[in-house]
Amino acid sequence: MENEAITINALADLLGTDRRRVKKTLASLTPLKTKAGVKLFGLGPALRRVFEDADSKRADSPAKHQERRERLRLLKARSELAAIELEKAKSSTISVDEVVLLWSNVAMAIRRIILTSALSDEEKDKILHELETFEPAQGPQTEARK
User: Are 47 and 73 members of one domain?
Assistant: First the structure.
């Protein structure tokens, strides 16, 4: 078996694997001989190299395992950020700062309209006081956030 020669294609067929993978695995192995431009490898050394390569890929070192976990965590974080960006693009979410700014501008416009109206000062003060002490109704989303 040691002296029996085999080609990369024949070894790939024998193992039922991809020829390119076998060629890559045997790249550092010296062929027994070359016949008509085709490399012939010893069957024993070729099989040992293929199985050693498979074993080395299977053996997970703690560093590789940690690296995979870190990559997975990074992918999850990127996925979450992409989901947030998608929601923003759909305009289905608005930042809290944007909402506060918008409603502050609305409140200032209402105040300005009241102050410049033809109402008496007493009526203006009463309306402004009611607006300052206004308590919004508790809706389902407001209660859920508590």
Answer: no
State residue 143 phi and psi, 5-degree precision: -70, -35
Question: Which helix (H) or strand (E) element contains residue 39?
Answer: strand 38-42
Q: How far apart are the first and last CA of the chain?
A: 76
pLDDT digit string, tens, across residues 94-116: 778 888 888 888 888 888 898 88
The total domain count for the chain is 3
Report the distance separating Cα 2 and Cα 127, nearest Å.
101
Domain range enclosing 22: 5-58
In a domain, 142, yes or no: no
Q: Is 47 in a helix, a strand, or coil?
A: helix
Is this prediction's pTM over 0.70?
no
